Amino acid sequence: MSKSIDSLLWQEGFLKLGNAFFTTLKPTPLPDSFWGAASQDVAKNIGLSAGWELDQHNLEVLTGNASLENQQAYSTIYSGHQFGVWAGQLGDGRAIHLGTVQNGEESFEIQLKGAGKTPYSRMGDGRAVLRSSIREFLCSEAMAGLGIPTTRALALTHSSAPIVREEVETAAVVTRVAPSFIRFGHFEHFASNQQYEELAQLADFVIKNHYPDLIDSEEPYLALLEKVIEKNAALVAQWQAVGFCHGVLNTDNMSILGLTLDYGPFSFIDATDLKYICNHSDSAGRYSYLNQPNVFHWNLVRLAEALLPLIAPGQDEALIDAKVEQLKELLFQFPQKYEHFYQEEMRLKLGLMQAENALVEELVLLLDRNKVDYTFFFRSLCDVVDAPSIATISVIKDLFLDHQGIDLWLQKYLAMIPSDNAQDIAAQMRRHNPKYILRQYLAQKAIENAENGDFSLVHQLHECLQNPFDEQAQFSEFAKLPPDWASQISVSCSS
Ligand code: AMP
Ligand code: MG
Predict the structure, then answer these.
(1) pLDDT for 26
(2) Does 437 fall in a domain?
(3) What is the distance in A from the centroid of ligand 2 to the CA of 262?
């Protein structure tokens, strides 16, 4: 354990892959730097000891104003499909990797988001504004608290440097941490350029470092695809069950490890609306809440296409046809896999002995028709299971216009809960139904305060959301139903 970022166990990591995969460069300094927030949990994971956030040099490194000794920073190249259309080359336009750190058995890539222009910035300024950086910092840590696979955030630092978006805002940098930031788009990049050697190198790197069990498979690249399908089916099932909407599910925002990646206009659902679109630039609703599993499936097909030259190398058409059939079969299984994971999540939320698909579907439609607050409903249902009284049931019924509908559903549901075990079941349910989520309006308030120099709400939300399933009396305000103005908040891609 060390206080200084320089003295962590830095490894060659992604740099081993060679120049075709990245450009080495330095972050562009900002005129001044301040701590905004820090995650002790992430610090511990990478081997930083207590007090690391008091070190001025660490602040400068994480804002991009100082470089690490003997450590070459880099940005990676990738491509991708955006909103269903091939977008060609993209790459880390504002993310600069400091490198890879080993801690015990685990290794972590450490990356500064918003650290200045890179060769992949295209028309962008390479910066991130404080507003979107607070959202990313809080949400990645909140997702981790919920037990949902995600990239993490070690730190949020900020500066007075003006950044022009729809309005003039100020700059910030989020230090992101993940076992790997490799995206579907990295594979699409080398496949689309017919750089099959690099494509194989990348796949081998991912398998060796992240899916070592696959090394000895008969067909490791096919096995890799199967694993990525599995991981992503599980991930999107968790999103749907908790009511999380990503907002920009382009293939360049899809993680090869099945992590939630690139927090932009994301939102948790307040009032249930299956057609909910959290990104106001997504007018067709391609990335609506309900469509997320379909989009994962579509994105996985793009990944399969990119891996095909490895799975069926050469020009033998009969082999290619046979492998395409095999890939199709794997991909056809996605909806079933997703459904299996989703029903399992819902079984746990409802405290049932076995999956009850029809009961879940009926409930979700009721929540949608009555525009019931998704998180509040499930948490209140735990109280009903714990003690089915007029008081607990009326909290739930008051959320619905259709009283008869929810009455009938509750009757069916409660008949499935054994009364002699109800309190244990309720306690278990509370481990699967968060009391606290990062509601849009809470993030908005925290941002407004921080923009005026007061980060206390950012810190309180951060603390609260690390344990979203626990009763935390001091944070009871955060569990309340959102105010009316919350539904008017609109979030764009601009960040
Ligand atoms: P996104 O969909 O926001 O994850 O980003 C799509 C692409 O745009 C990626 O290549 C990003 O690196 C790039 N990008 C987004 N914002 C900026 C910015 N302000 N400056 C440079 N590149 C950016
Ligand atoms: Mg992105």
Answers:
(1) 98
(2) no
(3) 5
| Averaged pLDDT for residues 198-217 | 98
Q: Which domain holds residue 108?
A: 5-183
In a domain, 438, yes or no: no
- pLDDT confidence of residue 490: 76
Same domain, 93 and 66: yes
Identity of the amino acid at 295: V
Mutate to test the pocket of ligand 1, among 23, 74, 118, 121 (most ligand atoms within 8 A of CB): 121
Report the pLDDT averaged over residues 382-401: 97
Q: Give dist(CA 276, CA 269) in Å, integer.
A: 8
Task: Find the mean pLDDT for residues 250-263.
Answer: 98
From 152, 183, 214, the end of a domain falls on: 183
Last residue of a domain, one of 133, 165, 183: 183
411 and 277 in one domain?
Answer: no
Residue type, 244: F
The residue to which tokens 């069950």 are assigned:
241
Residue 309 sits in the same domain as residue 357: no
Distance CA 284, CA 450 (A): 33
Q: Return the pLDDT at 494.
A: 79
Q: What would the pLDDT profile of 278-310 be if each residue is shown by its tens digit?
A: 998 999 999 999 999 999 999 999 999 999 999
| 6 noted as active-site residue | no
Q: What is the pLDDT of residues 94-104, one digit of tens each?
A: 999 999 999 99
**Taking 80 as the threshold, does the pLDDT of residue 491 lie above it?**
no
Amino acid at 418: P
Mutation probe of ligand 1 site: the residue of 118, 129, 252, 260 with most atoms within 8 A of C-beta: 252
> Residue with the nearest Cα to atom 17 of ligand 1?
124
Residues 371 and 286 in one domain: no
Residue % of the chain over a pLDDT of 70: 100
pLDDT at 4: 92
Which of the residues 6, 41, 213, 252 is marked catalytic? Answer: 252
Task: Of 1-5, 82-86, 94-98, 135-139, give the lowest mean pLDDT range.
Answer: 1-5
User: Is residue 256 included in any domain, yes or no?
Assistant: yes
- Residue 287 to residue 297: CA distance in whole angstroms: 12
Instruction: Kindly give the residue spans of alpha helices, DSSP state H, lying in 398-465.
Output: 403-414, 422-429, 440-451, 456-465
Closest ligand 1 atom to 262 CA: 4
447 CB-near residues (< 8 Å, 6+ apart): 130, 131, 134, 135
Dist. CA 396 → ligand 2 center (Å): 39
91 Cβ inside 6 Å of ligand 1? yes
Give the DSSP H or E segment for 140. Answer: helix 130-146
Q: Which run of H or E residues covers position 360?
A: helix 357-369
Kindly report the backbone phi and psi dihedral angles of residue 166, in degrees, each rounded to the nearest multiple of 5, phi listed first. -60, -30
320 CA → ligand 1 middle, Å: 35
Ligand 1 binding pocket includes 152 (Cβ within 6 Å): no
Confidence check: pLDDT of 316 > 90: yes
Rounded Cα gap, residues 302 and 306, in angstroms: 6
